[in-house]
Amino acid sequence: DAKTTQPPSMDCAEGRAANLPCNHSTISGNEYVYWYRQIHSQGPQYIIHGLKNNETNEMASLIITEDRKSSTLILPHATLRDTAVYYCIVRVDSGSQGNLIFGKGTKLSVKP
Amino acid sequence: NAGVMQNPRHLVRRRGQEARLRCSPMKGHSHVYWYRQLPEEGLKFMVYLQKENIIDESGMPKERFSAEFPKEGPSILRIQQVVRGDSAAYFCASSPLLQGRDTEAFFGQGTRLTVV
């Protein structure tokens, strides 16, 4: 079973920030938080990952709470092309991607 | 720099036939992973391979399924004597080996297997 909990669906207006929450209350000290997304019928796409500190890249920002029991993925200016299922995954840093445990994710619908 | 290439994109097989799914990892990547996605469900890990070695096959069904990643050529996921329940999207991912640093996985576009 996935070690994360996400809302099944969310809506966001185009141009607005999309804030996707994830609970991972049983996360261990050496586990990272990863986010992937899957646009309809395509392969999953890596977005961002972090351990303790907040992270930002060209796609998104990742905010991790101080106790690391939850995190939020932020898409600062959502577009229609951001409509996808977003997966929050926790895993140990093992030097390479291995067994990713995908839950059901959050289906984000960006509306015009 | 081509991404992870999977072929065929769509495959139709009759019950009892064999299905062969191919995956060419990104250039320079030595790790390959196969996932299965049943209709309306999330992705499930099947197997993790390095060149000529199976590292983790904990998600592979015990019968009819096999995977290989030979020294030369693509990784192959083989399903023998397919049944209707094997109908799914099969995704391959690859990653490089970077000692001491975690890396992301790059996914292909998948092969959609339909068993009729």
Residue share in helix of chain A: under 10%
The parts of chain A where pLDDT drops under 50 for at least 5 residues are none
The chain pair with the largest interface is: A-B, 25 and 32 residues
Taken from the alpha-carbon principal axes, the silhouette of chain A is globular
Rg of chain A, Å, rounded? 13 Å
Task: Spell out the key features of this protein.
heterodimer; A: 112 residues; mainly beta; five-stranded mixed beta sheet; four-stranded antiparallel beta sheet; globular; B: 116 residues; seven-stranded mixed beta sheet; 11 strands; 48% strand
Structural commentary:
The complex is a heterodimer of chains A (112) and B (116). Chain A is mostly beta strands. Chain A has no helices and nine strands. Chain A has strands at 9-13, 18-23, 31-38, 45-50, 55-56, 61-64, 70-75, 84-92, 106-111. In chain A, the strands form two sheets. Chain A has a five-stranded mixed beta sheet, with no helix packed on it. A four-stranded antiparallel beta sheet of chain A has the order 2-7-6-5, with no helix packed on it. Chain A is globular. With 116 residues, chain B is an all-beta fold. Chain B contains no helices and eleven strands. Chain B has strands at 5-7, 10-13, 19-24, 31-37, 43-50, 53-56, 65-68, 75-79, 88-95, 106-107, 111-115. In chain B, strands 2, 4, 5, 6, 9, 10 and 11 form a seven-stranded mixed beta sheet that branches. A four-stranded antiparallel beta sheet of chain B has the order 1-3-8-7, with no helix packed on it. In chain B, a hairpin with a 6-residue loop joins strand 7 (65-68) and strand 8 (75-79). Chain B starts with a strand and ends with a strand. Classes of the chains: A mainly beta (112), B mainly beta (116).
